[in-house]
Structures are given as structure tokens and as C-alpha cells.
Amino acid sequence: ATPDQLASAFAGILAEALSALRTTAHRELRVASELIDSSLRVTFADSANGRAYANAEGSLDPFFEALGAANGAGLSLSEAYGAIRSLGGEIRVARQGEGTIVSVKLPICP
Fold first, then answer.
1. Which residues fall within 8 angstroms of residue 36, CB to CB, at 6 or more apart?
2. What is the C-alpha to C-alpha distance for residues 34 and 43, in angstroms, rounded to an integer?
3. pTM given for the model
4. Which of 26, 45, 68, 108 is the most exposed place for a label (fewest CB within 10 A)?
């Protein structure tokens, strides 16, 4: 993956979060990063209770649409998954209280 693909992956994750936030009155989105050993972890946490795909099998598969085709960004998470995996990283999607957290872990080049 190129730096542009990584930027697009992060933009896609943010697009999914912003789309999901339209479904809730309490709107909060937090992005954080931290160094862990020889990796960088970036987390995207939102308060959108409408992100039903957080526990769904296949949420990183192409064309998965938990919010419906008119609401979601479509390939965003799948494309992010591909770009991050090509860099040797990993991406996880999970529930966090009433919201969702997407965690990206990338190796740091020496």
C-alpha cells in the first residue's frame, strides 16, 4: 500500500463513523494513536449505536451494508482492510458501550 492508500483507508473508516453518527442524537467521534512496542495503534471510537455491523460476521467484506446502501460508504471498511493488511497491519471492529471502535495496528519500519 502507498501512503495515499493508507490515507484513503483512514478516510474510509472516518466516513463510516460519520455516516453512522447520523443515526444518533449523542454524536461523539474520538481518534487516538499510541506506540506499542514496534507498532502504531490508531483507534477510531464513536458513539453511534446504529453501527450494528460491529459484531457482525463479514463487516470487513466488500459490499457489507449494516446501515443500508443509502447510508453507508459501502466499500470503505473493506478497502481499509485491504490497504492495512498489505502493510502488514491488522484492523478490528468491536462494540464499545453504545458505540463502535475500529482499531488499526501497523508495524513501524526500523
1. 105
2. 9
3. 0.77
4. 68
